[in-house]
Every structure is written in C-alpha cells, then in structure tokens.
Amino acid sequence: MTDQLQWVDEAWQNVVEKVDKTSKSIGANFPHASENGKYVLAEPYWWTAGFWPGLLWHVYRDTKDARLKELAEECEAKLDVVQQDYYRLDHDMGFMWTLTSVAQYRLLGNEVSKRRALLTANLLMGRFNVNGNFIRAWNPWFEGEDNRGVAIIDCMMNLPLLYWASEETGDPRFKNIAQKHAETVLNHFIRSDGAVHHVIRFDPESGEMIEALGGQGYAPYSAWSRGTSWAIYGMALSYHYTGEAKFLETAKRVAHFFVSHLPDDFVPHWDFRLPADVDAPRDSSAGAIAACGLLLLGDTVPETQSRMYKVVGEKILHSLYKNYGDWSGSEEGLILHGTSHFPEGKYLDNPLIYGDYYFVEGLARLKGYKELFW
C-alpha cells in the first residue's frame, strides 16, 4: 500500500467515525456553517440544503449504514414543500436535488426520487433567458430589487441536473439549455488569463451584457477563489456530458490559473487578487471544490496530461485533511477555515457544509468511487 492510500484510508475512517457522531446531533436537517463548534441550521429552501444529505449518501455508499440512508431520505422528503411552494426556487435547484434525488436514484434506483429530480429539471429549465442564453440566478430578495438579468458562476454546478435529465428522458432540450448557459459563461465570465467573474448582469429583455459585478469576490475584476473552483469543476462536467472540446480547454485554462495562485499549503485564499491592506483568510471550501474538479480533469484528459491535475487535487485534499481537518475535537464541521462571504462579513473563518461535502466527495474519488452524483 502506498503512503497516499494509507492517508486516504485513514482520512476516510475519520470521516466515517465523525459523521456517525455528528449525524446524531444534526439529524435530517440542513446545516450551513458552523459557529462555536455547532452547525447553524438553515431552512430547507436555502441553497446549501443538498450538501448534508449528499455527504451522507457518499458515506452510505461505502458503509451501507442504514441510519445514514434514512436521514438522507428524510432530508430529500423535506424538500418537497420547497418544490411545491415554488416562490423560493432559484438557480440552485441543481445543488439541492442533484445531491438528494439524483444521488438516491443513481445509488438505489428510487422512482420517486427520479420524478422529483425530473420535475426540478423542468423548473430549472424554465429560468432560461432565451435572448441572453443564460439561466437567471436569484429571485428578488427584497421589494424593488431587480435581478432579472443576473447570472452567476456558481450555476455551472447546477447544469448537471439538466444533462442528467436529457440522458434519462432522451429529450435534448435539457442538455441544449445547459450547453447554451455554459457557452455564455465561457464567453462572458472566463477572462483570457483564466480568472473568473462571479456575477454578470445582462439586459433581461435583449440579453446583452451590461456589467460584471464583484459579488462575493473583492471587486468585479479580482479573482474570487471559490468562483474559480466552480468554473473548473463545472466546465469539466460540461465536457463530461457534451464532449465539446471548448469546455475542456476552458476548464484547463481556469485550472492552470487556480493552481498557479495556490500558496505553499495548496489551500487558497478567498480571493487571488487583493490589495495589500485587505485581509486574505483561506477558503478551505474553494480548495475542496477545486480538488474534485482537478480529479475529474485528471480522469478526462489524455494520460500524458493526467498526472499534473491528479497530483494537485490529491495535494489539496491531503492538506485539508492534515492541516485543516478537525477529527478529535467537539467541532461538528469536518474542515476548518472556510470563508463564506467576505464582503458581507459572513462566516469568515468557519467550517462550511459545502466544504465538508466536497472534501468527502474528493476522498471518495481517491478511494476509487468514480460514479458521480453530478
């Protein structure tokens, strides 16, 4: 057994033991970010609702722990009220139902889960702006807000729900819309050096681009690291489903930018381009997401290129385990030092459920589980 496999097996065992413990306190709920050692629970409509049940499915796939399966199923059932309410639904339906309904359908063939996911795919498809070729992001958060023309880089990770729906139904409309959104991201979000915009505002009537916005990055033309990681993984997945070389080349370009800006411990700061007087805490979640994207790239590109992506993905995950993991304390989160929303001062040095999820997904890939929930 190699040293690498030894640490992966050790890390996985720590994950299994900790999830067994924390699942008894978190239950069938929706953790978001951890404060003072305990996860703050969000409402089912919040965009992170899929990550805890998705994490449970990864562990269940390996351990066959029926209690974890039941918790994941209960979380999925709780999302029915969100789907039926409709008004809370936005572009993040993919995050929510891919890691619950699609995951269960892929693992267990559950027909109810399949129907839930297909209905959600139809609702997500309905957010497509045909003039701008983008999936609209948020609904108005307060009276008078107009974000009808807003699209965000995060939505690249919602596209797999549409690709999956086309494969399941044989209906190309889902895939066509996902591919058109990905092409818009390629044309407007990805800069020539591989840096990524978080938010682009389009004219909702004409579809013309109006401006780039800073979003959760420092500024419109800085380089928010989590946005960069969404682009790596999302573009790699779009190539996985379409075979379009332009998506693969874009994923590689963004990956090279990301890797070239990593610090010595391979875990990124929250933004890669900051003035000297602005704090630069790490964002462990950006590292975990990017690691999963790099591992997929490593499985996708020719063998002569594969190693450089896989090695960095493994190094990120190893650093997260050794330098950022909490395995023996009372902390409910798995991975410390995530930065949720620096401009708004939200959760600036906290475990984040999506960081935990992608860390576990990455470990599962290193253990040999190649089937994606995405």
Order of helices and strands: HEEHHHHHEEEHHEEHHHHH
Instruction: Calculate the mean pLDDT score and round it.
Output: 97
Low-confidence stretches: none
Give the helix proportion (percent range).
Answer: 40-55%
Proportion of residues in β-strands: 5-15%
Computed CA radius of gyration, to the nearest angstrom: 19 Å
N-to-C terminal Cα separation, in Å? 30 Å
Largest sheet: 3 strands, antiparallel
Based on secondary structure, the structural category is mainly alpha
List the keywords.
mainly alpha; Glycosyltransferase; three-stranded antiparallel beta sheet; two-stranded antiparallel sheet; 7 strands; 7% strand; globular
Describe the protein in words.
There is one protein chain. This protein has one domain: Glycosyltransferase. Helix content is 54%, strand content 7%. It is built from 13 helices and seven strands. The strands form three sheets. The chain has a three-stranded antiparallel β-sheet with strand order 5-6-7, with no helix packed on it. Helix 2 (51-63) packs parallel to helix 13 (353-366). The longest helix has 24 residues, at 3-26. The chain is globular. The two termini are 30 Å apart.
